[in-house]
Structure formats: structure tokens, C-alpha cells
Amino acid sequence: MPSRSNGLAAEMEAVRTLALVGPAAAGKSSLAEALLHKAGAIGACGSIERGSTVSDYDPLERRMLHSLNASVMHLKHAGTRIHFIDTPGGPDFLGQSLPALEAVETAAVVINAATGIEPMAVRMMEYAASRHLARMIIVNKIDSQGVSLQGLLADIQAAFGRECLPLNLPDGVNRQVVDCFFNRFGRSDFGPVEAAHRALVEQVVEVDAAFVDRYLEEGDVDPAELHAPLEQALREGHLIPVCFVSSRSGAGVAELLDVIVKLLPDPTEGNPPAFLLGEGAEAKPMEVRPDPSLHVLAHVFKVTVDPYVGKMGIFRVHQGTLTRDSQLYIGDGRKPFKVGHLFMLQGKEHVEVSHAVPGDIVAVAKVEDIHFDAVLHDAAEDSHVHLAPLAFPVPVHGLAVEPKRHGDEQRAWEILGKLAAEDPCLRIEHVAATNETVLYGLGELHLRIVLERLREVYRFEVLTRPPRIAYRETVTAPAEGHHRHKKQTGGAGQFGEVFLRIEPLPRGAGFQFADEVRGGAIPGQFIPAVEKGVREVLAGGAIAGYPVVDVRVVVYDGKHHSVDSKDIAFATAGRKAFMAAIREARPAVLEPIVQIGIDVPEHSVGDVTSDLSARRGVVTGTSDVGAGTVSVGGHVPMAELANYQSRLNAMTSGQGRYTIALSHYEAVPPGVQQTLMGQYRGHEEE
Asked: 397-465 in CATH: which number?
């Protein structure tokens, strides 16, 4: 009788995992429906227009007719369990699509035959290659009117390399497909399949010298013998298979299921995930083996937070066997949780299972400590194991938010935290300089969907506005200030007189305060009050309402009264003397200058650099980063980057990406300073 471990190993080898990635409108969700239906997992294909697909179950997705979240599904075909993840295609939702690559052996880039190669297809091919995944290309909608599939295949090979070879070809004027890997003879819409078959076999045998010799001697090799070199070719990116389908008519769908089962890698055949042991610079690569008999290691690649159901962690098992009632630790947490229920997901449906082996994608619910990118394990020595981090795009599109109802600030922070837990490309920050809570996302649409979810799911209303620019004020010349504060109200009065001088400090030096009073003109106990008055101006500004920085204040003289001098009098005198000095010291408003890095297609460099100059920016250099992409570096005022992603999309056909980091502060142009000062005076008058 076979042992249980042998049975689990066989079960693991009958698992396939792939992520459907690529541009919006390529038909990924419709293809998922067609695969589920053809395998008998659902009775009929759902419709995106009717909002009845398995993957797009979120009300916002149904309303927008687009995927906004990664959705996990599974099916069985020919004795094999296939897990696949349908991902959104918009660049604003890379926080959902990129983590799916952490859970699979194969990235299936779906291309719309009618629109050809789009920027998102290029990006996902690059991301998948950087994670050393097997890659395949699925050309969908082959029955679209007026398409040239031969021309598209040539475009694919020009964009991604000659290693992109068709496993099947359209036939019957794109109404069906014919295999050209196992099948040497026959015809297709492209002509005889023999040339395609020969190209595939030659590409595969190149990775194995023994098969090269056989091929040269015999003129062909039985494809059934090529499983090992095929998997090696997929692992090494030496072969990127191309399959043709139509999710609408069903052409090629059954054949695609066969390709997944027969040719794509199982968990033992893909490149091992890049696990690390240790933290920071001390972290070392760690071997994780897809062996069901070892201790458990699993990686959380997606978290959902439902206000009614609670938090759910969705993860890929990489090592060991997970069962109900298992005790699991989350990262370096010391308290384990018990797996009460283990689910495989079918869109929004939860299918309970008894166990999961390496390769399986499963979920646990109601575990509040679980979080994105966590490693789940059942052994104490694995507390410092983690997966090499993904290179997510940096969220730089900001929106200031505040609750509509006063007093809801804490609840707003909690709900926004839940939304950020679901999306690694959504960042929440309290900006102390402007006292604002700012949401940072990948674009305008990204943040709009977050706000709609806030309103519809959590019934929480917020007010929004562009984030304030964290301007500063400073002085550019030495000056002196004086003020006598005298107030008599019938009883005890107030008296304090202060003389001070100020001078500019180097940029970034901050604030310095010095007491050079001699002879007790201002008694020592009142000097802190003078400094307090000065600091009030530092915080609230003198000419435009922004904090004052990089200034030295020296109190050198004054007068006091033995009865009427009080702290409040010297605080007032210090504040007004400082204000008077600033007005004489050629005050300036400073603006934040950011260092910007922009990755753009080569043909867009001129437009981007011209636009940057028009935004008062300075280009510091360009460099070729490969694949037809150029990185443009420069400095630009933060105030000039409002809606920049939209402008960049227009200049680069959606292919441009940028990151920013604060560089330094510089004085604004005189016209801008006058505007800011005028706005401040108008506010003060109101």
C-alpha cells in the first residue's frame, strides 16, 4: 500500500499554477470563465456586461466592467488541479497584479489580438522575467474582425525575442486551433504546421546536448520524450510558448487546458522562490523545497478585509503539508494561530478543503495578525524567513483626506489602514509639516476607487483636496527688530521691551536662539518667554503663513518693570520684535524641490524633458536602461507635479513611470512669492 507521503507527492506533481496578467480589455476574466466552463467547474460562462463572472464579483468591478482586484480560482482537468489568478490590467492596480506573480510557476501574459502588444504586456513580461518565472503568451480574441495573427506573431517575436514560438496555430479562419508541438503534420491558417513543429523541437533540444545529437542524426525527436528539456527551457526563458484562443467562441480553450496540464511546470519543476533567512544585509538565500513531508512554509500574497467577515489571508504553500488544526506562526510572531478552516477560493466562494500541499493556493479567515508578505510556518527556526521583496512602483499621486464629520479622525485612520493592508501600492501618511492625512496611490483612478470603496463598503464619507505644498519661510539678510509691549488695564499692567537681531543660517541648519543680554536689562527668568514668542512665529510664519527655518535669533537688550513685567509681556514683545526683524531681512518663501526619476520609452524622451523644463525643472541626465526604455533624472518643484502622472501617460501612451524623493528647498520665484503672500493676507483679513 503506498504511503501517505508518496500520495501527497503525487498530488503535488498534479498541481499547476499560473497568473493571467496583461493589459485591461485583453479578455483575462472572460478567458478565466471559458477555462472554468470547459473544465466543468461552472455550468455556464458568466458575462462581464451582466456582472456574472466568477472573478469580477466586487460591486465596483461590476459597475466599471473592469477587474480591480486579483481573484483566485481553481479547476480540475485531466486529473490535475489548476490554480489560476485573474489580475487587473490597469497600471493603477499593479498592487493587485504584481503579488500574483509570487504565487505561481507560470505568468501567462494575455494579449488582445485586435489591439496587439500594449505597454502593460511589456511591463508584466519584464516583471515575470525578473522573478524567474516560466512565461507564456496567450493571444486572445483571435476571431476579432480584420486581425492579422501572422503579423501579430511577428510583432511578439520582435518585442520579446525569437524564443516566442507558437504551441498551436489558428485554423479554419481563426475558428479553431491546431497543435504544432505533438503534431508534426497538418495545415493551419499559417500554412503547414511542420515548420512551427520543427522550430519548437529545435528550440527545446538546444538545452540538452544529448537530444541535439539525436535530432541531428534522426531529423526529429518524439515530443513525448522532451518533457525534461522543455521544463528546463521554460525555467531558463529559452522558450516562451504562444497559444491562440478565443474566449468568446471557445476556440483553443480545451487545447489551452491540455497545454497547462501537459507542458507547464509543476511545483517541483519551476524555479524555486527567492526565500531569504535573516534581516537586512545579513540575510542569506535559503533553499525551500516543494516537499510535502518537510515543515510548512507558505507566503501570504494577498489580504482582504471585509467589515463583516473580517480579515482573510490568501497564500501559496511552498513547502510541507498544511492541514486543518495546524498551528502556524506569522513571521517572527511568538504566538501561533490554529487553522480552523482551510479554503480554496473560487472567486468570492470559499471551498473548504482538508489539506494543502506545495503548489496549492489556499486561504484562512478571521486571523487578525495576518498581513501581506507574511511567511507562515510551523517551526520556530523559520521565524526570520521571508521572500525577496517585489519591486513595486512607488505611490506618488497624493490626495489629502479628512473625515466629513468632526471627531471621526481616529475611525478614518483605522479604515484607511484596512484599505492599505489590502494594497501594497496604497500608502497613508500624516504629514506633520501641513498637518494633513495624505493618501498616496499610483494614479487618479487608483485613489478614486479607494474613496469609492471607503464610501460604499465602510459607509464613511471624507472630504478631499490636493495636498498642501510644505512651503517654508526664511530670511536672506541680517536685520534687527524691536518692540515695546505696554498694557495698562486699571490694575496690574503688562510691560516688556525686546531688542533682537537675526541672521540667515545655511539651508537645513534649522533654528538657533542666543541670549546676549547684559546688565540684567531683561531678567533671566523672562528669556524663555522671549524665546517662546519667537517660536510662535517660527511655527506660524511671518509673511505667508509657513514655518520659518534656517535663522539665528540673538536677544541683546531690552527693558523690564519691577511690577508690570510678566512672561506674557515678554512673549508678546519677543514675537513682535521677531516679526519686525523678518520684514527687514529680505524674507523669502522656500519650496520643496524633489529629485525625480522618470522611465519612458526612447521615442518620448524629448517630450518628457521639454515638459520637465516647462515645469521649472532641471534635467540632470539620461541613461539607457534597456528594452527601449530611457531613465530621465532631474529636479523639479513639488508644486509643479500636480496631475503629473496623467500628463506623463499622455506623452508616453501610458508607458511612463516616475518616482520622487525630497531633495532640498529653494526660494520660489518672485511672482509665486507675491501670490502666496497675497493669499495669506487675504486669509488673515477674513
From this structure: 3.30.70.870
